[in-house]
Write a structure and sequence with these properties.
Layout (H helix, E strand, L loop, with lengths): L2 H11 L1 H5 L3 H15 L5 H32 L1
Length: 75
């Protein structure tokens, strides 16, 4: 599976990251990819880590969006 098809699957799982990829997310993916490239983890582990990281990162984005909306409505 190539890099682009993995990203398509991730965007289906977590649409927020398609709209708002940021440096923290890209760095995290880069670190996971580097560990895989060094043959420390298998491809199956790599795919699982990418999906888990993506879901958890999206939760942070969702929580941040909720906090921002609450903060704006308090003004």
């Amino acid at each position: 599976m190539d890099e682009y098809s993995k990203m398509e699957n991730i965007n289906e799982i977590v649409p927020e990251l398609e709209q708002k990829p940021d440096i923290g997310y890209l760095i995290g993916l880069g670190l996971i990819k580097e560990v895989y490239r060094e043959n420390i983890i298998s491809e199956k582990e790599y795919n699982g880590m990418v999906k888990t990281f993506t879901r958890e990162y999206a939760k942070c984005i969702r929580n941040e969006n909720v906090k921002n909306k609450e903060f704006k409505s308090d003004k």
